[in-house]
Every structure is written in C-alpha cells, then in structure tokens.
Amino acid sequence: MIEPRRIRLGMVGGGQNSFIGEVHRIAARMDDCYELAAGCLSATPEKAHASARELGIPRSYDDFARMAQEEAAWNDGIEAVAIVTPNHLHHPIARAFLDAGIHVICDKPLTATLAQAEDLEQAVAASGKRFMVTYNYSGYPMARHARELAADGALGNIRVVQVEYPQDWLATDLEASGHKQASWRTDPAQAGAGGSLGDIGTHAFHLAEWVSGCRVESLLADLDSFVADRQLDDNAHVLLRYGNGVRGQLWASQIATGHANGLRLRVYGDRAGLEWFQEQPEQLRFARLGEAPQILSRAAAGGAERDIRLPGGHPEGFLEAFANLYRDYAALLRGDSDDYGLLPTVAEGARGVRFVETAVASSAAGGQWREL
Amino acid sequence: MIEPRRIRLGMVGGGQNSFIGEVHRIAARMDDCYELAAGCLSATPEKAHASARELGIPRSYDDFARMAQEEAAWNDGIEAVAIVTPNHLHHPIARAFLDAGIHVICDKPLTATLAQAEDLEQAVAASGKRFMVTYNYSGYPMARHARELAADGALGNIRVVQVEYPQDWLATDLEASGHKQASWRTDPAQAGAGGSLGDIGTHAFHLAEWVSGCRVESLLADLDSFVADRQLDDNAHVLLRYGNGVRGQLWASQIATGHANGLRLRVYGDRAGLEWFQEQPEQLRFARLGEAPQILSRAAAGGAERDIRLPGGHPEGFLEAFANLYRDYAALLRGDSDDYGLLPTVAEGARGVRFVETAVASSAAGGQWREL
Amino acid sequence: MIEPRRIRLGMVGGGQNSFIGEVHRIAARMDDCYELAAGCLSATPEKAHASARELGIPRSYDDFARMAQEEAAWNDGIEAVAIVTPNHLHHPIARAFLDAGIHVICDKPLTATLAQAEDLEQAVAASGKRFMVTYNYSGYPMARHARELAADGALGNIRVVQVEYPQDWLATDLEASGHKQASWRTDPAQAGAGGSLGDIGTHAFHLAEWVSGCRVESLLADLDSFVADRQLDDNAHVLLRYGNGVRGQLWASQIATGHANGLRLRVYGDRAGLEWFQEQPEQLRFARLGEAPQILSRAAAGGAERDIRLPGGHPEGFLEAFANLYRDYAALLRGDSDDYGLLPTVAEGARGVRFVETAVASSAAGGQWREL
Amino acid sequence: MIEPRRIRLGMVGGGQNSFIGEVHRIAARMDDCYELAAGCLSATPEKAHASARELGIPRSYDDFARMAQEEAAWNDGIEAVAIVTPNHLHHPIARAFLDAGIHVICDKPLTATLAQAEDLEQAVAASGKRFMVTYNYSGYPMARHARELAADGALGNIRVVQVEYPQDWLATDLEASGHKQASWRTDPAQAGAGGSLGDIGTHAFHLAEWVSGCRVESLLADLDSFVADRQLDDNAHVLLRYGNGVRGQLWASQIATGHANGLRLRVYGDRAGLEWFQEQPEQLRFARLGEAPQILSRAAAGGAERDIRLPGGHPEGFLEAFANLYRDYAALLRGDSDDYGLLPTVAEGARGVRFVETAVASSAAGGQWREL
Question: Which of A56, A154, A252, C309 has fewest C-beta within 10 Å?
Fold first, then answer.
C-alpha cells in the first residue's frame, strides 16, 4: 500500500538541458513517494534559480554546501538528496550531504576516481545514512527476475556471462559541437578515467555481477578511441574471469553504429541459459538445456509480481524501472524494509569505479591481466 | 518548457483495486502538470474515503454530484475531472461536471449506450468545456508517427487497414470468481452492449480510423461468447468498408490464448505499408513498395521528436503514452494550444459507441452489413 | 533409410522462366527419391525441347496426351507425373495421366473450376492411382508439429482460427508489362474464378483446416481488385464459421505493401494457442494459458524429429518443406506407407476450389453467408 | 543457365550416421550440377560398401588411396572429390587426390595441424587443381550481400567487428555416451588442437574476415573446458586486433545453453553498421548512422539477385547456402568463371588452422597477445 507521506527530496544538478535530472524527477514522482522540495540545479546561480522556478521547486540554492547545511538545520528540510551532476562532482557533494546527515541517491559512476569512491564508502558507514547508486537497469522487473532465476539455481552452475552495451551517439566528434552531454563525458577532468567504460561499461559490469551473482576476479581490457582527438575510450573490449571458473566478455561501445541503447546480458549455466535485452525489457528469454526456450514476461508465469504497476502486455520501460529504485529506496528510508535488498549500494558503486580504473590500467599496459 | 502551475484535477472512480484509476493518476503525475485535489473514488463511502486517505488526496466525496457542485462553487476547486468508473456511470458523471462548468477526461468507451453518447456530445458543445476521451493508444509516439506518415501521403492511396486486439485474460469464467475487472466488463448493465467489443474493440476501431485517416462507412460483425453463460461477446470478428473503397478487418478477442495485450495495426497503401504493435511500441515497421522495410523509432530518423522524454533506446511504454494525452490536454486547458490536435474528442468517443451498437446489431441479424 | 531405387518422374509445364517447375524439380531431387525421366515442359514445341535439353531430361514431348500414352506403354516409362502448368490445364492433363495409369502430383489450386475438380476426384477413385496436391506449406516441420499439437488436444477445445497470407508483388499492374507469372494468375481464363483467392487463399484455407482439424461450414467474403482493370480479386477478406462453433478470419492479399510471402496461422483453444509464420518457418510459438510462451523448434523439445535432414539451428526452408511432400509421396508410391498420412489429397484439392467458388459467389452477392 | 553436363563427384567419408556427408550430397544435388559417381564412405569396408549401396553410388572403395589412383586412371573417373571425414584425415586424403590430379572440396577446418595445412597449400599450387574449403556460411545470400556492402564502402571505415558462435550440444559429457559426432570432435588425435575453436570458431573467424574485408593481425585467447575431463576447449573467448586499428571480439562456445547454432556477425563502420544471424539467414540488418535501420533481404531492394532460386519470402536455408558453394565451384570447374570469386580457398582454410593454433598458444600462455 502506498503511504501518503512523501519523502522530502533535494536535487543537485539537473538544471536546464540535463537529461538525467529529469529522469530522476519523473522516477521520484512516478509512485508519489517523494516531493521535490529543494534544489541546487546548476553551478551558475541564474540557471539554478531559473530551473527551479520552471520546475516549481520551492527552495533554490546556488551552493550545494550551503544547501546541505541549511536543509539539515531545518526541521522540514530535505531528507534525501539526488546527485545528478557530472562524475567529478559526485564525491564532494555526496560528502557534504552525508556529513550533514542527509540520505543520498547518487548517479553512476559513483565518483571520478577510486580514491574518492573509497572515501565515500567510509563516509557512508560513518554517517549511518542510506546511500543508493542508480544502476537503474537493476530496476527492470525482468532483470530482477533474471537475478532470482540465477540465485534460485534455475541456471545450475554458471559457466559463461556475456554482457554488452553498444550505443552509437558518440560515433562522430559530437563534443566538438559543444553538445553538453558529450562534452563532459569525453573530458577526463569531469568524467574520470573511463569514457564509454565509465558511462555505460559500469552499468554492464554491474548488471553482469548483480544478475549472475558471480564476482569478477581479474580482467584484461583493450580500449580504443576511434574518434580523432578523443581523450577517453569510446570502445571497450574486456575479458573477464569470475570466481569458480566462470568466464565472460564485456563490450561497451559508443561508436557502434546502429545501436541506440543496446544493453544485453546473457548468462549460461549447466542447466539453463537466459538473455535480457534492455530495448525490449519486458521479455526474458529463458532456455533450459534440451527444452524449448520460454519467453518470460510480467504477463506470464514466472513474472515478477512485486513490480507490477500495470498488467503484463502494457509495456513498462526505462522510467518505470528507474522509479522502482526510487520506490524501494523510499521504503528503505521509511523503515518498511530493513536492508537494501535489490538496491545498489555504495559498495557496488565503488566496485564500478574500481572496474574502470583496473580496465584502464590493463589496457594501458598493452592488454594484460589485472586482478580486480 | 513545463509550466510550474499545476492544473487542479479531480477523479471519480479509481478506488482500491482499480486498475485504470492508478494509470490515470500516474499519467497525470508523470509530467507534473496536475495535482490531484479531490476525489469521489468509490460509491461506497468508507472505501472512497479510505482510498483518498491512502493516496493523500485532500478532499474526498462520496457523491459525485455533490463533488461537482462544491468544487465548482469554490475558487480553488478542481478545474478538470477524470472519470474512471465502469461504463454505465460515465454519462451521469460527465453530465454533472460539464453542467457545473468543469472540464472532463473520460475513459472509454464513452458511454454504455449511443443515446447517452449523443447526449454528451451536445452537452459538451453547450458547456464550452473541454472533453477528452482516453483512447490512450493514440498517445504512443510511434502511433502518432504512423498517423503523420498516412496524413503526409507516405503510404500513397490507402487500400487495406487491418487491426486486431487479442487478449486472453477472459479465456476462462473469471467473472464467476468475483474478479472485479472481469465482473463489470461482462455485465451488460454496467458495460453496455459490447463485451470485448466495448472494452478493446473500441480502442482498435479508433486507432484504425485515427492513424489511417480513413472512415468506416459500413460493417458486418460476427460476435461470439465462447465462455459458457457469458452475456457479452468475448470475441468479435468484423469486416469493415471504409470510404474510397478501403477495406479492412477488425478482430477483438479476450479469449485469444497466449496474448496479453496484442493491439496491432497495419495500414497498406499503394506506395508503402506500415505496422505498429502495442507490445513493442517503440518500433514502427515502414515498408515502401519494392524497398527494404525500415524499423522507425524515436531513436532514428523519422522519430517523433515532440514526444521525447527520453532518448530513443530508453523504452517508453504504456504509462508514458497515457501521460502524453494528459500533458497535451493540460496544454489545451492552459490555452497553450487552441485545438484538440491529436487528442481524442467526445465525437470520437461517441463514434466508438456507435461502432459497438452497430456491430452488435449486425451480428444479432446473423451477420449482415450495416451502415455506420 | 533412403532406398536407392529412384522413382521415374515426368513433368508437364515448368519450362523456361517457370518458377514453380524448378521448385518441383529441386524438391524431387533433394532426397534423391526421383529421377526426372520425361517432360512436356511447354505447349510450344521448341521451348519444350530446349528446356528439356537444358535440364538434361532424357525424353521430351510437345503433347501431354501423347506423353501419357507413350510413357504408359513403355516398361521403363514414368511412374508419376508432376503437373506445374497454369490452373486451367490441370484437369485435362491430370485426366490424361490418370487414365493412362500414371500417378499424379498436381500443383494447387487443383483446377480452374469446381466441376473439373469433382471430375478429378472421381477419376482418381476410378483409377486406383495416387494423387497428391502440393499444398506445400503442410510440408514444413513446424506446421506439421502444430497439427500434431492440435490433434493431440494440447490446445484444448479450439475456438478461433486466424489465417492470413499477405504479399505485395501484384500491388502494381504487373500483368500489363507482360510478366508471365502475373499474367496468367490475373486472367480468369487461365486462373479460374479466384485471383489472390486461388493463388494463395487456397494455401491459407488448406493450412487452417489442416492444422486445426476444424472444418469450415460457411463463409462470407468481401473481395476486391485494387489495381485498375484487374479482372480477378487481389485482396480477399473472408469470415469463416467452422464446425463446433469455431470462428475465424482469413485474409489473402497480393497488394499488401511490405509483405513478401507472409502466410501466418494462429489457432486458439481453451488450453493453449499457437502461431506459425512461413517467413520464419523453423519457429512455432506455443502458449499455454497462463504460462510463458515457448518457442518450439526442431532444435528443442517437441521438435518434429521425423522431418530432420539437419539438426535444429541449421535452417530448413521452403524447398525442404516442399521436398518433404515429395519424399513422403515416394514412400507412398513404394508402398512403404499405406495411406496418405500428412499428404494433401485430391479431396483437399477439390475442397480448395470449392472454397474459391463459394467465396466468389458470396462476394458477388454483396457479401452474404454461404455454406461450403 | 544450368548446364546439363554434371560433374562426376567422389566422396571420402560420409557413411552411415554422418551428418556432414549427407549435407554435402544434398548440396551437390540441389542444382543438378554433379553426379555422385564414386565413394570411399568409411574406413570400415563393410560400412563403406553398405553405405554406397544405400545411396546408389556406382563405385565403392574401402581405400581412399586406391580410389584416387583408379578414378584418376579412368577416362570417366571422378573429376572432383568431397572430403567429409574427421579433421585429421583431411590432409592425407586431399594430398592423395591432388597428387592424382583430381579437384578437391574439403570440409573445415582444413587440417588438424598447421604444418599439414601449409603442405596442402603448396600441394594445391603445385597440382594446378581447384580446391574449395566449405566455409559454408559464406554461401548465404545475405552474408554475401554483407560482404558487398563492406567492400563497396557502405559501412565507411570499419572500426569494430563482433562475431560469436554459440551452441549448446556439448553442454554435457556427450562424448562419454559414444555419440559419434561428439567423440571425434573432442579428441585431439582426430580434431587437432581446437575443440569449439576448430569446429565452429574457424567458421566465425572466417566469416568475420571474409565479410568485413579486415585482416586479423594479433589475438589473445582465453579457452576453457567446462565439461569435466574434456580434453579440448568447449568455450573460447578471443580478443582480436585487425589491421587499420579495427578491433573485435570472437566467442565460440558449445556449452552456451539455449543456443542451437547461433552464428552472429556484426560489423560497425563510421557510416553504417550491419548484423547477420545464421538462424534467420534471410535478413540482414543494416543501419546507416542517424537513420532508421533497414531489414535487407532477398525480397527487398539490395537483395543479392544472383543467389536466387526462390523469390524472397520463400525461405532458403543452410542447405541452399551450402549448395551455392557447390554451384559456384561447378562453374569454376567448367571454366564458366576463372577465379574463385566468393569461394573459400585453401589459403583461407590454412588461415583458419593458424587461427586455431595461435589461439591455443595464447591461452596456454595464460592469455597473452600473439601475432597471427
């Protein structure tokens, strides 16, 4: 049952022309668990305030540190903050709010450097506050169902995990045109060490481990920048060795012509295999060895009932999956549930940054194996 | 740019265990254009008030007529009302709010009888108020794009229109178990003359005319009730003759085993054909005669840019399409746009009821042609 | 085990520029059960002989009646003949060979008129010879598997049968260009009463009855010729009432822009539904009520083992399905099997012609119900 | 125009229970370009002769060397031989026939060792005879069309090539049951150094280079044997560096639960990308950057006309693709064409064996880069 009391939410970043800021706002609104009460939507004061006005956000700040302090000091101040800035700002902002005693929702990758990520892990532990990293693909009902199948042993002993995330929006030198999303994602000062690796590779890496329940122990990466003068990778080929002899490949690319947002995960065990594709997220292909493959969905047997806003056949998509994270996080904050359950933690966020830095090091060494 | 001022919305119907009520609420909330300010969520007072409490709706009524009067009398009363009750109540409720000077959003089919529908058409005209019927499939970006292709002549002269809407949730005698959704939809006193015809056939009929721009002139129907003792059709086969010699078939079924919500429209002209399938709504197959078919999407050339909350490849679904109607209607109420544009009108709603009654009469006569 | 002895086969029709003649020849050759020993490949003597020379056929005739007599008179004459001419010639040729005591393989539709078809039925019975009509889609392994599922009760009581066969190759006035295939198919003197109805509607009609095991009792047709001056239908919409209250639609079209050869059959029972699509013939979608749909194939459990030349995943197609008819017919002629089993009989062929004539009469009457 | 004169063909291997022998025979028969005149179908004399009798092959040998000599000595002896034995026998057999002046068709991988492969390359050059390796996937019309698109520059500068070939038939210890196909393929003495790598990895490797026109310069492999006691790899993960900075991954697996024969190739350039999947071989997805993807087929514009036995929409499959190699090879032998054109040569065969040995060495070294 949806509780009427809405959690007071703040947001840092996400002003005009932001993509992910609006996604977080819709996700927070979807199930009516939050009210957006305060924001520091831009580092540029006029833009911050104009954005807040447009969005009807009551309290607008132009300094996130002051926002953290003032909101924390006030009885009806925000209870949680969503951080939707470029990567390099995640750490200072998250620290500011955690230190002020405010729960944090942070976009991925967690931080621009591993040192920052490890600092955040400690800060979360010290604060006693909740911290969610929006690896949003884990919010899809059929991705969650895939995880259950793996955990329940329906796949048997897992042998191979194949994950890929091809896009094509950076197939040309888009950053040269001043395109905001492209510019910061290809700038090491804002994005960190990974290009496609940080932006989408971390999603793929997280989903692979999170669904399969397997843990990568070492990797070998071959990174490339196909667009001239690009400073960060736009294509990443990675070999992965998981525990228990499980093997896999990961491919992340932002120059894969013809793909919009093609995250695809396949997990193969000795009893069954499964496949999930983000662009048709309501279907989960599940094939037991020697049997006809089944197309699992929310509509059919095996659907993940807990995630249903709509009956099967009425497609839910990216925003609903994102909203599932927000809804579950609200339940956590309200104390309806006591542990993170399916929610991605700061530790998972830090692991993603470690993945990026390890892959970059492997590739820089000419493509050598590195422990993770 | 989203305006901060939210339209004050009321709702009649949609209490506990309602499916479509929650859909309307999420759709209204999605783009932050409405606030749900009052409700008469059930005819049972306790249930109405409990539902309102749970949802955090400020003002709760147990009588829709009183709600219409009181809200209209108040300066800050609701500006529009969403009607999400069983069909037979649409007419009295809509009249009450129109007569009180409040805009109306009404679920489909418009009414339980054609006489009621025609009365509503007149009432809307007399009231000067806005009236939208939630033929929600017309809110999908790629359905809208299909309509544009047809209107722009990309199909050439249209020849054949095939539409179908198979489901299987009424393949058994679900209503005997007391299932609320099944019970009223199979009860002529609440649903009107059409079973599958009214519940989903009206969607199919609307979409076929709305996308193709062709207008049905006569029809011949063969209706059946496959489940024993069911009083209304659960399967409808209809032949359609449109103007200008265009021909088509319509199939609506709620006993089509293996289908969840399989609305599919295909339109064939002498230059090109197109196909759109609701369960994979982000794709539109478009084939020019003699050329390779294209898979149009929001991501690729030809995408319907105006409908984008998310970049292509980040799937939008049923709720986002529904929200498109709400958002466009908000623009209409605010005066941002002056005509209904893509929004389904009361006339389209009445036409759907006429389609139902004509098909029922055709079938009752043994399957004879009837003018529409 | 394949027998080394090859059946001596003759062919009438199928000379240069024929489409279906070459299909029959490859089908006969595929499993090495036949040798093509004689032919009357064209009514034009030079063309007949040139074609035979090119194909390396030992004995060439320019008169089918003489061929029947001479081959029958000779000890090592042909044992069976394949008739691959335009429709209006099927009857005289088949009679000639049956009367001479030679088995017949005849393309569909069986004849140009129902009277001819009925005469052939009697002639077959009188002759004691074998007669196969090449409703070749019944040769696909997964269509055969669908028939088994229906026969075995896996679908439960069948309720609805939907079949369609859209193509677009006659979307323009192709016959005006002298295109051979188009010309005779649109000429009533050669094709008979049906255009799309005879050419592809008979396939759809046969497959629907053959897979479902249901039998059409009455129908109502709405036929059209969308291309100017075309004398025969190029689009056929038909309502079907089968026995036991089963209902269905059939759509055949040769002006459905964007379709190559889109034969699709769907059968819905109260326990399960299935779907088979000729353009992806190795898959059979099978959905039990309330369960996840399965994708049956030769590779997976439930595959039709008897039809395997190749392991699943190694696609077989149109020619292999056609060859399955030829192979099974060879077994029948050799006496390896004693009844027609899955093979389409002259009675099924005659039924197809009756379907065409009944639909034409129904449509000519303005779209009225007619018993079949 | 098909020539009536059939090439006299011999076969070594392919007796009872062979899979690939029958495939070659059907492929040879499909277009009537060959007659199977002699065979040494098994190393076991009784089996060889029984198989020949069953198949109606005129001359049966139980010693391939004698067969080569006798056939070569005879005026009407075979002109070409098809070698369809386990890998380790390819070399001696091919040498015997080449040395006797008989053309050779040899299954892949070319040989069990690179030394043998190199010897064959020289023997072919010295003999002046024709030699085709049946990398049969290159016979598919849409794979050929993909190659044309790459060669014609439709993809622009190629950047990434992804190829995979998952199967699951060796997911269990099938060889322990005495299964013939499994036994020799998992036995280093018969298969050579590669398991999945040799059996299917060579197909994937060939197709990737052959379609893209790019040439691998170095690779790094991580091979595994997931089934206990299996001596050869059953899963191969390989990173590939092609010339001109092109990068790619290759995955071959015979333990990928749920896959029958899932060869899939994707090539990405800076202007367009393409995808071809062997299990639906009639479609080729082609996406120009920023445009809607097209589904190319034989039916639509861009179809590969030269390969058509059937109009588009009438599916051709594995056997037809295989037959395309045989047909083109017949044209080569007859002198209708003067060079190999699309046909895979002995050099391509040798390159496949080099790929296997290099990958095995890379993996044995713990996963290190090796030049190819």
Answer: A56
Grouping H, G, I as helix, E, B as strand and the rest as coil, residue C218 is strand
Structural element, H or E, at residue B106: strand B103-106
CA atoms in the 13 A half-sphere facing the CB of A162: 26
The one-letter code for the residue type at D196 is S
C-alpha span between A152 and A285 (Å, rounded): 17
Given strand B80-83, what is the order of strands in its sheet?
B59-60, B34-40, B7-12, B80-83, B103-106, B131-133
Residues of A in contact with D155 (CB under 8 A): 257
Pairing of strands C59-60, C34-40: parallel
Q: What is the ipTM of this complex?
A: 0.96
Kind of pairing, strands A216-224 and A158-166?
Answer: unpaired
Residues of B in contact with C220 (CB under 8 A): 220, 222, 239, 367
What are the residues whose beta carbons fall under 8 Å from the beta carbon of D15, sequence distance 6 or more?
Answer: D21, D41, D42, D47, D48, D50, D51
- Out of B10-19, D111-120, D203-212, D314-323, which region has the weakest mean confidence (pLDDT)? B10-19
Residue pointed to by tokens 């990216």: A318
Q: What's the Cα-to-Cα distance from C7 to each of C2, C96, C106, C136, rounded to whole Å?
A: 12, 20, 16, 20
CB contact under 8 A, A279 and B315: yes
pLDDT grade, residue D338 (50/70/90)?
confident
The answer for residues whose C-beta is within 8 angstroms of residue C245's C-beta and 6 or more apart is: B224, B226, C159
Instruction: Work out the average pLDDT over A88-112.
Output: 98
The pLDDT-based confidence of C4 (bands split at 50, 70, 90) is low
User: Nearest-CA residue of chain B relative to C370?
Assistant: B367
3-state SS class at C196: helix
Inter-chain touch B25–A32, beta carbons under 8 Å: yes
With tokens 């056949």, the residue in question is A313
Q: Rounded to whole angstroms, how far apart are CA atoms B38 and D288?
A: 51
Judge: D301–B290 Cβ closer than 8 Å, yes or no. yes
Taking alpha carbons only, the member of B39, B29, B22 closest to residue B2 is B29
Condensed to tens digits (0 to 9), the pLDDT of residues C61-82 reads 999 999 999 999 999 999 999 9
pLDDT recorded at residue D172? 97
Q: Return the number of CB contacts < 8 Å for A and B.
A: 122
Q: Alpha-carbon distance D209 to D348, whole Å?
A: 10
Say which residues have a Cβ less than 8 Å from residue C266's Cβ, sequence separation at least 6. B256, C160, C161, C162, C163, C273, C274, C275, C276
Please report the domains of chain A, with CATH numbers, ordered by start residue.
7-129 (3.40.50.720), 139-309+346-371 (3.30.360.10)
The candidate with the shortest Cα–Cα distance to A82, out of A52, A37, A115, is: A37
What residues in B contact D294, CB-CB < 8 Å?
Answer: 292-295
The alpha-carbon radius of gyration of chain A (Å, integer) is 20
Length of chain D: 372
Count of C-D CB contacts under 8 Å: 121
The CA distance from B282 to the nearest CA of chain D, in Å, is 12
Element (H, E) at B251: strand B247-253
Q: Can you tell me the distance from the alpha carbon of D143 to that of D283, in angstroms, rounded to the nearest whole number? A: 9
Judge: C235–B159 Cβ closer than 8 Å, yes or no.
Answer: yes
CA distances from B148 to B56, B274, B275, B336, C256 (A): 40, 12, 14, 21, 20
Residue A3: pLDDT band (50, 70, 90) is very low
Which chains border A (3 or more CB–CB pairs < 8 Å)?
B, C, D
DSSP string computed for B11-45: EES--TT-SHHHHHHHHHHHTT-EEEEEEE--SSH
Residue B336 pLDDT > 90: no
Angle between helices A346-364 and A114-127 (to 10 degrees): 170
Q: Give the pairing type, strands C284-288 and C272-277.
A: antiparallel
